[in-house]
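Need a sequence for this fold. Nothing fancy.
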């Protein structure tokens, strides 16, 4: 019988985890749903909340309890590997679902479209730090996401990079070929890497309804690691792994992003007062793409001759 496994990674989410769990428990489905919580040795009350729910719903909820903090990606890898379902849904412990029919609709969409290995949908973005207004996720990606339901190809995913809300993803498990590769532990974006892995053998089926909420807050991963040298290093490493696993005709997309990453690293080094490293990564940036090398040289020549 078909089953959906919900992969929920959580660390210091005591304010949010109960709402995430309840949004899974409210799902109305014609198939079984299991919730696997990877609780990564939180320093707050997150683990106790997870264990309390597991005691109340022992047939539906399992909690993974590592002895020491693994970090986001290793926790994700272990939690994914523990999922037994035909499909795997992704839900971080600080996000939540808003539609009780979300999983049922997604499974039905994948059944109806066997050429697809991932189903995704729109989401609401909820800002809790006062830096931005709440908005619908697709508003930022109108050039990519369709207004109506339909198929998004692997080509579009590679060409436009990340544009799928994390808590909207439902994968066909066999498409992920678990366990995840060892290099996954060092990537920056686990959800985008999962999208690339899953769509190597299929497309994405997109539903335009907002059925989940993505929180932006001071301790969220995307907020707290923005534009640091370490995260830039991880993005460069990630780019290399993505390029290696993709067919060669995608190289131009990864080269374009790598050029951007080297320019970003050059700027970060300049901000740290490291002039030699700034020049080194600037040189790497302009040499990534041979077709653009002449453009960069021309631009530099104009700058120094004006």
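Here you go.
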């Amino acid at each position: 019988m078909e089953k959906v496994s919900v992969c929920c990674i959580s660390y210091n989410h005591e304010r949010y985890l109960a709402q995430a769990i309840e949004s899974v428990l409210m799902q109305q489905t014609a198939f079984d749903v299991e919730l696997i919580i990877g609780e990564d040795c939180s320093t707050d009350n997150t683990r106790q909340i997870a264990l309390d729910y597991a005691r109340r719903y022992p047939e539906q909820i399992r909690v993974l309890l590592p002895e020491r903090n693994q970090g986001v990606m290793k926790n994700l890898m272990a939690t994914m590997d523990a999922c037994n379902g035909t499909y795997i849904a992704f839900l971080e412990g600080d996000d939540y679902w808003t539609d009780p029919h979300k999983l049922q609709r997604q499974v039905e969409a994948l059944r109806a479209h066997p050429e697809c290995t991932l189903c995704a949908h729109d989401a609401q973005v909820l800002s809790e730090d006062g830096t931005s207004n709440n908005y619908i996720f697709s508003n930022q990606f109108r050039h990519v996401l369709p207004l109506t339901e339909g198929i998004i190809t692997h080509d579009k995913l590679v060409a436009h990079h990340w544009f799928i809300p994390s808590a909207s993803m439902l994968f066909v498990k066999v498409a992920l070929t678990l366990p995840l590769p060892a290099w996954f532990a060092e990537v920056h974006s686990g959800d985008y890497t999962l999208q690339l892995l899953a769509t190597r053998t299929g497309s994405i089926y997109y539903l335009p309804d907002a059925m989940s909420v993505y929180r932006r807050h001071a301790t969220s991963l995307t907020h707290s690691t923005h534009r640091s040298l370490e995260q830039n290093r991880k993005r460069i490493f990630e780019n290399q792994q993505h390029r290696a696993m993709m067919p060669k005709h995608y190289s131009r997309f990864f080269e374009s992003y790598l050029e951007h990453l080297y320019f970003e690293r050059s700027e970060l080094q300049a901000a740290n007062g490291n002039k030699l490293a700034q020049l080194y990564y600037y040189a790497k940036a302009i040499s990534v793409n041979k077709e653009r090398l002449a453009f960069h040289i021309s631009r530099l020549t104009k700058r120094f001759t004006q």
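For context: Residues 229-305 form one domain.
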